[in-house]
From TrEMBL:
Keywords: Membrane, Transmembrane, Transmembrane helix
TM annotation in the entry: 34-50, 62-84
One Pfam family here: Cas1_AcylT
Transmembrane keyword on record: yes
Name listed for the protein in its UniProt record: Cas1p 10 TM acyl transferase domain-containing protein
InterPro entries from the UniProt entry: Cas1_AcylTrans_dom (IPR012419)
Domain Cas1p 10 TM acyl transferase: 1-97
Amino acid sequence: VFFEKIFVTRPWKALFVTTDDDIREWWSRWRVDRYSVVFGVTFGAGLLALQRMDHIPGSALAPLAAIVSIAAYTTFTLFCGNVADCEEIHSYIVFIP
């Protein structure tokens, strides 16, 4: 109710709702990607800080880490049975690069 009160009032209404005042589509998309920006900014700031302090190890393990991360996320995607559960978990594991 509070969420709808904020996003169905003018001037925000034109950005978030359809013509029939339904915000379900926007709400479901927001729930899936709600932490993406926070994870991205945190990862970027951490990466820059580590680069400036020269604490990033050699790139020998970088391809292996990328392959393991992609394999883990692909496995999760293939074995997830319920779409609602997958979308709920997605917002918490989106930090996997």
